[in-house]
Amino acid sequence: MNDTGSLQYQAYHTIKEQILSKSLDSEVLYSETRLAKELGISRTPLREALQYLSQEGYITIIPSRGFMIRRLNKETMRESIQVRCAIEGFCVHLAAGCEDKKRLNKLLKDMEESLARQKTALSAKNFPESFTEEDHQFHMLLVHFAENGEFDHLFQRLLYTIHLTTANALTVAGRAQATYEEHLTFYQHLKKGDSLQAYQVLINHLMMPLTMNII
Asked: How far apart are CA 57 and CA 160, in angstroms?
């Protein structure tokens, strides 16, 4: 990888981490020039990194002014959930006909272990992040059953909105446990090849945040 590509890669991951850790304020309009100076790079690799972050839904670029961190609102949440229902709902029928579901089962076990660790003071502070990541991996794996690059791209584009939705939902008492149980019920139907029941459980699961007062 050339120097520009390496700097772009570093800038992308640095800014993404700052967004996910909430080090960047969603109320602030950030200047490319100032941020490039803070990161110690030129504007070219920074601009390329920002383009990728924009494509993945993390930021909104405001031409000639800079960029802002995307914020979750009811409309963007509703739209992203509807897209997920369309994509993941289709993938349910493909996954039900696939014999190898071991990776889904492994992620369920990881989520169960995260819930158990939540009760210990040592790991409780890391719980939301680990559980959220396992939740995302579970749904991404379901999408991968389609082996459709466009589906993968669309899901990746929604990932930050999904992250914000999940993070907000998990602030509701008992939602983490309910999320795990919904995943488990979905997997049990899927394992039996009952795609219709699995589909209904999945749709109800994905639509759940729309019924919760999380925004």
From this structure: 6
Q: Which residue positions in the chain have pLDDT lower than 70?
A: 1-5, 121-127
β-partners of residue 66 are 62
Helix H or strand E encompassing 131? helix 127-144
What is the per-residue pLDDT for 125?
55
Sequence-distant (6+) residues with CB within 8 A of 154 are 83, 87
Bridge partners (DSSP) listed for residue 30: 67
Q: What is the pLDDT of residue 128?
A: 78
Tokens, residue 97: 């006909």
Instruction: For the chain, give the number of residues.
Output: 215
Whole-number Å distance between alpha carbons of 172 and 167: 10
CA angle 70, 71, 74 (to 5 degrees): 130
Contact 26, 70 (CB under 8 A): yes
Distances (CA, A) of 197 to 17, 110, 200, 202: 38, 24, 5, 9
Instruction: Tell me how crowded residue 118 is: count the other CB atoms within 10 A of its CB.
Output: 17
State both tokens at 43.
């504007």
Single out the residue of 72, 74, 75, 69 nearest to residue 27, CA to CA.
69
With 0-12 / 13-18 / 19 or more C-beta atoms within 10 angstroms meaning exposed / middle / buried, residue 49 is buried
Helices (H), the chain: 3-20, 32-39, 43-55, 74-96, 102-117, 121-124, 127-144, 149-157, 159-169, 175-191, 195-207
- Phi, psi for residue 66 in degrees, rounded to 5: 145, -140
Q: Which residue has the tokens 């993404």?
A: 16
